[in-house]
Amino acid sequence: MGMVSLRFYAELNDFLPLELRQRSFDQSLKPTQSVKHLIENLGVPHTEVEIILANGRSVGFDYLPRERDRISVYPLFERLDVTPLLRLRATPLRHPRFLADAHLGKLARHLRLLGFDTLYFNDAGDRRMAEISVQERRILLTRDRALLMRREISHGCFLHALDPREQLEELLLRLDLFRLISPFSRCMVCNGCLARVEKEQVIEELPKRAGQFYTEFWRCSDCAKIYWKGSHYRQLVGFVEAITQQSGTPSS
Fold first, then answer.
1. What was the pLDDT predicted at 231?
2. Could you give the CA distance from residue 229 to residue 236 in angstroms, rounded to a whole number?
3. For the sheet containing 25-29, what is the strand order?
4. How far is CA 230 from CA 204, 209, 215, 237, in A?
5. Closest-CA residue to 75 (of 11, 158, 143, 141)
6. In sequence order, which ranges of the chain are alpha helices (DSSP H)?
7. Alpha-carbon distance 132 to 188, whole Å?
8. Contact at 8 Å (CB) between 216 and 228?
9. Cβ–Cβ under 8 Å, residues 42 and 13
10. DSSP assignment, residue 193?
11. What pLDDT sits at residue 41?
12. Nearest partner of 71 among 43, 51, 41, judged by Cα
């Protein structure tokens, strides 16, 4: 059994025991063990890793480390141009679509409010979640490390925060999504796209007060839910503005 020197950078250290963080350390190496298995055995999901360097040379997940290799592991670099280096997945998802795990329902609603295509199921098992993520090329959002370690998943994001608002801010900052925000363009209930409709088209479906006091309406293309700028709208606008101001991005 050989030994390699490992060093994890930035937020990847959050997955490690305290005594292994922010430093190089020796790790035993099993015969024919890939660098992917070496990393995940330490608790770091492969979906959190963007670049691996072996002795200064970029390698893929299937690389077989050798005795005394120096392995450096880096997180996602969505805000930096690292194209000269080998990426560990075919292409980044620059127009991201998300799949939220069962415990992230409020985060899913926040993302839909900002216009991000976000699926959410509270009853799908890990296998089904992995299938949807791969088939529809969706970034899997979860706090379940084991789920992100499934071999078939290539795009995923582990959320460190517990509060849904903090999870949203963490995701926007990490993937640099502020410029892609398009608020009030998706249904917060089902994720369908919203389209403007004339009042005459929906008047029979509206509550009496909505029909009396409002003139602008939108309908979800999937579930047919009708939206208007009611009393809750001002609160949502304040939420969106508070989020976008963090990056200096004006809300539309």
1. 85
2. 10
3. 25-29, 2-8, 70-75, 49-54, 57-59
4. 18, 10, 11, 11
5. 11
6. 35-40, 105-113, 126-135, 145-148, 164-175, 199-202, 208-213, 231-244
7. 20
8. yes
9. no
10. B
11. 95
12. 51
pTM: 0.78
The DSSP element (H or E) to which 158 belongs, if any, is: strand 156-158
User: What are the residues whose beta carbons fall under 8 Å from the beta carbon of 215, sequence distance 6 or more?
Assistant: 199
What the block records as the tokens of 54 is: 């072996």
Angle, nearest 10°, between helix axes 105-113 and 231-244? 90
Positions in the chain short of pLDDT 70: 1, 77-94, 247-252
User: What whole-number distance in Å separates Cα of residue 21 and Cα of residue 44?
Assistant: 12
Residue for token pair 């979640």 = 129
| pLDDT at residue 179, rounded to an integer | 86
Distance CA(59)–CA(4), nearest Å, equals 15
pLDDT at residue 185, rounded to an integer = 97
Amino acid at 123: D
The SS3 of residue 4 is strand
Measured CA to CA, the distance from residue 143 to residue 135 in angstroms comes to: 21
Q: In this predicted structure, what is the pLDDT of residue 170?
A: 94
AA identity, residue 97: R
Contact 65, 72 (CB under 8 A): no
> Around Cβ 48, how many Cβ atoms within 10 Å?
22
pLDDT at 79: 47
Nearest to 47 by CA among 125, 143, 180: 143
Please provide the CATH number assigned to the domain covering 2-75. 3.10.20.30
